[in-house]
TrEMBL record:
Pfam families: Cmc1 (PF08583). This is COX assembly mitochondrial protein. It comes from the Eukaryota. Transmembrane segments: none annotated. PANTHER family: COX ASSEMBLY MITOCHONDRIAL PROTEIN, COX ASSEMBLY MITOCHONDRIAL PROTEIN HOMOLOG. The lineage of its organism: Eukaryota, Metazoa, Porifera, Hexactinellida, Hexasterophora. It is found in: Mitochondrion. Belongs to the CMC family. GO terms for cellular component: mitochondrion. It comes from Oopsacas minuta. PROSITE patterns: CHCH. Keywords: Disulfide bond, Mitochondrion. The keyword Mitochondrion applies.
Amino acid sequence: MSNVYMPDNEDMRRIERDVLVPKKMRAYARSRCADELKEFEKCCKGRTVSMVFVCRAQNSAMQNCLLRYFNEDGLRERCTREYLDERKQYRNSEGYKKNYQNQNSEI
């Protein structure tokens, strides 16, 4: 059995799978829907309760755009691969190795 903290291990903890990868997916969707987000933001500026009624069309357009990109085929797999690559790069860094060695020597 390999150590889960080794750089080449691709097992993911629950927080990585259920929180960090979806966070990357949301960031991707938000980057693709920048125009819709700006329109909604512009509509909401200076409004309080009335924004619910006045900005309904902009909110709908923004939500539809975000859902379209968030549910894109293969996005979860791409974001998972990107996350694992970043994690591997971090685990190969000197800072991680030094911390990992210090934690194991204290046990």
